[in-house]
């Protein structure tokens, strides 16, 4: 059932046994970074329970609108469907992506339903930030923690799709991130702009102009998909950490294969790793509080 999905063998074994013995919990929470197969596992479970992953009794929900949050009306509509009879399958499956993007009022509306679902219903909540969910939601779920994938496994997936394997090293265990990097050239353009700033430290007005260009591209994405835009911004913060790590390894004369970006030139100035980690974390939190991305990046790199 899960044979074609890479990684997380212990979870495969647990879910396979639970399904075989008809002991699958009705409310599951799949936690772990984006792009490591949580959605694939959820769809495989739905196919097993419903007979098809295209069944009308499979309901997939995601945050919506410019806010990138769950609307309470959407969740109330889901609750109504949960109480209705299945269309054709033995039961119903609801998959909620990015479950952490529920505001407290929306999450609270779900509590009773998650605690006492109808006998033919299964809920699968997916999240990359379980700590952001209400404790009352967490307490009603059986939580499974998905682990990042091995670099070799991601490289094999990239090869199967005809992509360069170099993106596996940049993916930090996320096959989804590796494919996005391989298939979206604009992400490489954004990385190059950021690395020029980090390596060359041009005049302040040039830095401001370049960062505004980066911000503009991500803001345009935000109009279409706020969740994806947030992920694209996260890539920039990750790149800052990667670049500094590489510079410190170069200083230690590390082998090129240990570097994320061996083609990048040696920089004269770079920050202590502890300092940059703290700065980047503070900048991430500021961005989550709706501070302008360009301001957050300047703060992260101490400009």
- The whole-angstrom Rg is 22 Å
Stretches where pLDDT is under 50 for at least 5 consecutive residues are: none
- What CATH architecture of the largest domain would you give? 3-Layer(aba) Sandwich
CATH level-four homologous superfamily name of the largest domain: P-loop containing nucleotide triphosphate hydrolases
What profile does the largest beta sheet have?
5 strands, parallel
The average pLDDT score comes to 89
> What count of structural domains?
2
CATH C-level class of the largest domain: Alpha Beta
Q: What is the terminal separation in angstroms? A: 51 Å
- How many helices in DSSP terms? 13
Strand segment tally: 5
% residues in beta strands: 5-15%
Going across the major beta sheet, what is the strand order? Answer: 2-3-4-1-5
Q: Which key phrases capture this entry?
A:
five-stranded parallel sheet, 8% strand, alpha/beta, 303 residues, 2 domains, Rossmann fold
3D architecture notes:
This protein is an alpha/beta fold. The chain has two domains: 137 residues, P-loop containing nucleotide triphosphate hydrolases (Rossmann fold, 3-Layer(aba) Sandwich); 117 residues, no CATH class. The chain has 13 helices and five strands. Strands 2-3-4-1-5 form a five-stranded parallel beta sheet, covered by helices on one side. Helix 10 runs antiparallel to helix 11 and helix 11 packs antiparallel against helix 12. The radius of gyration is 22 Å and the shape is globular.
């Amino acid at each position: 059932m899960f044979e074609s999905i890479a990684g997380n063998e212990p979870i495969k074994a647990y879910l396979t046994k639970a399904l075989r013995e008809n002991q699958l919990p009705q409310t599951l929470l799949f936690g772990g970074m984006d792009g490591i197969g949580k959605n694939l596992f959820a769809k495989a479970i739905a196919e097993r329970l419903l007979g098809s992953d295209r069944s009308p009794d499979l309901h997939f929900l995601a945050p919506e609108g410019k806010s990138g949050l769950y609307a309470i009306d959407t969740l109330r509509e889901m609750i109504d469907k949960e109480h209705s009879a299945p269309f054709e399958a033995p039961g119903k499956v609801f998959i909620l992506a990015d479950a952490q993007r529920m505001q407290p009022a929306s999450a609270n509306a779900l509590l009773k339903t998650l605690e006492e679902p109808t006998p033919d219903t299964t809920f699968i909540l997916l999240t990359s930030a379980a700590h952001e969910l209400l404790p009352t939601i967490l307490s009603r779920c059986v939580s499974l923690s998905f682990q990042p994938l091995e670099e070799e496994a991601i490289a094999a997936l990239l090869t199967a799709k005809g992509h360069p394997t170099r993106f596996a090293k940049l993916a930090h265990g996320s096959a989804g991130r590796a494919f996005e990097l391989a298939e979206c050239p604009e992400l490489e353009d954004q990385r190059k702009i950021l690395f020029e700033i980090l390596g060359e430290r041009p005049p302040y007005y040039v830095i401001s102009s370049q960062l505004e260009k980066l911000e503009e591209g991500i803001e345009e994405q935000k109009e279409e998909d706020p969740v994806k835009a947030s992920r694209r911004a996260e890539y920039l913060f990750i790149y800052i950490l990667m670049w500094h790590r590489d510079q410190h390894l170069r200083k230690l004369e590390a082998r090129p294969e240990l570097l994320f970006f061996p083609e990048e030139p040696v920089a004269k100035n770079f920050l202590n790793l502890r300092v940059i980690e703290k700065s980047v974390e503070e900048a991430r939190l500021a961005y989550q509080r709706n501070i302008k991305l360009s301001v957050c990046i300047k703060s992260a790199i101490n400009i």
